[in-house]
Structure to design on (386 residues):
């Protein structure tokens, strides 16, 4: 990996950062206060992203998109991380898994998604399963040439705006030496399908306005044409197209941490106590030094993992390390920034208390910190036959 960005990569980062500052920042207070993104603001962000040429930039040129590399896309996500999740959702990054679409699915789902005509949402998590995908209970069985689905999903981000859903459902079970093992299939499910409903989820302290929803299936009949990939091939689809989603969490954590750091640095350079700026006190200046060191380290870990993907090198451990370190770094940086601001850091006059709350979920979704540590340690031990 070459350290430092190319002129083109620097332009990508600067362009997205400018977009976030101009189109996202001005609406953040409204979303934070109301917990809602007005439809006209959502449409405005989507339209301006389309005009900028960045909508679905994570998709290849073969479907009319920018075709950014993993490294370039990590830079996009890093800069988007500076802004509200609820608002930058409309910057538009459909799930790459839609590249698994075949036949009529391409015209019904893939192309409308990358053109910004339809929005998707990914649904895996269930109330009783969490990180244990094999433990999912939402199931489907064949009946008269269709699949009949029953069960529920929860914590589904973006479902309030989605026109269709990519849902992973148990479609069978195999007996193994380690006990029953679920077979999983991915399905494309349209909003409004009979027997399928979407309702409000839980109120989260993190990312107000970026809602999680609950999906419920009650004898929902899906034709064979709604299967994405192969029947019982859900894990293959996941491993092929959802391999790098954890890089997004890492990259956005870095971007948010840099914004938080800017607040802390500027405050330390302006706030006076005992006749001098507080940045001159070692207790504050050393915190600033630690913060920027950790941010830079997380940034490099994230870009290095993306670079390995671009070079088609094994990257599972590196991605896990980036997600683990960046998300935990963000928690430390936001906490330190509040400490530097003192009591004012906890007041909603400043956005720091929001960043502090928002940081908490990053260590949970897209694989908890414990899952990432498991991935890393397993990779290390397997190399030694352990």
């Amino acid at each position: 990996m070459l350290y430092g960005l190319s002129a083109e990569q620097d332009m990508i980062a600067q362009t997205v950062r400018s977009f976030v500052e101009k189109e996202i920042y001005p609406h953040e207070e409204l979303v934070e206060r109301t917990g809602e993104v007005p439809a006209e603001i959502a449409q405005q962000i989507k339209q301006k992203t389309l005009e900028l040429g960045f909508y679905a930039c994570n998709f290849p040129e073969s479907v009319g998109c920018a075709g950014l590399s993993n490294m370039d896309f990590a830079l996009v996500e890093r800069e988007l991380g500076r802004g509200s999740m609820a608002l930058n959702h409309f910057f538009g990054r459909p799930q790459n898994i839609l590249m698994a679409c075949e036949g009529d699915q391409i015209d019904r789902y893939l192309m409308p998604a990358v053109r910004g005509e339809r929005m998707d949402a990914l649904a895996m998590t269930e109330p009783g399963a969490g990180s244990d995908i094999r433990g999912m209970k939402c199931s489907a069985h064949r009946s008269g040439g269709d699949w009949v689905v029953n069960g529920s999903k929860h914590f589904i981000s973006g479902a309030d705006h989605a026109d269709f859903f990519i849902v992973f459902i148990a479609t069978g079970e195999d007996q193994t030496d380690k006990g029953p093992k679920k077979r999983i299939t991915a399905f494309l499910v349209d909003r409004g399908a009979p027997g399928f409903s979407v309702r409000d989820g839980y109120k989260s302290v993190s990312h107000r306005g970026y809602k999680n929803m609950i999906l419920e299936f009650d004898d929902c009949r899906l034709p064979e044409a709604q299967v994405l990939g192969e029947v019982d091939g859900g894990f293959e689809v996941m491993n092929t197209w959802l391999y790098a989603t954890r890089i997004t969490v890492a990259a956005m954590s870095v971007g948010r941490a840099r914004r938080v750091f800017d607040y802390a640095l500027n405050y330390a350079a302006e706030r006076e106590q005992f006749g001098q700026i507080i940045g001159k006190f070692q207790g504050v200046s050393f915190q600033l030094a630690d913060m920027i060191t950790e941010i830079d380290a997380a940034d490099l870990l994230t870009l290095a993992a993306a670079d390995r993907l671009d070079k088609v090198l094994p990257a599972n451990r590196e991605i896990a390390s980036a997600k683990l370190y960046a998300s935990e770094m963000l928690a430390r940086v936001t906490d330190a920034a509040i400490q530097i601001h003192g009591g004012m850091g906890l007041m909603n006059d400043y956005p720091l208390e929001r960043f502090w709350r928002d940081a908490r979920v990053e260590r949970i979704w897209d694989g908890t910190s414990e899952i990432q540590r498991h991935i890393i340690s397993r990779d290390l031990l397997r190399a030694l036959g352990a």
About this structure: The first helix runs from residue 7 to 24.
